[in-house]
Amino acid sequence: MTTEDIKNEDSNIEETQENNAPDNSEEVQNDTETAENGPFAVGDTVTGTIFNIEDKFVKVQVDDSDYEGIIPISQLTNKRIEHPNDIIALDDSITAVVIKVEDDAKNIIISIRKLDEQKAYEDLKQKQDADATLEGTVVEAVKAGLVLDVGVRGFIPASLLSDEYIEDLEQFTGQTLEVKVEDIDQEKNRVILNRKRIVEGEKSKHRQAELQDLEIGSIIEGEVVRTTSFGAFINIGSVDGLAHISELSYSRVNSVEDAVEIGQKVNVKVLDVNPEQERISLSIKQAGESPFNKFIDAHDTGDVLNGTVKRLVDFGAFVEVSPGVEGLVHISEIAHDHVNVPSDVLKEEQEIEVKIIGLDKDNEKISLSIKALESAPARPKQAKQEQNSQVYTDDTDDDAPTLGDVFGDRFKDLDL
Question: Least CB-packed of 4, 108, 155, 183 within 10 Å?
Answer without folding.
Answer: 4
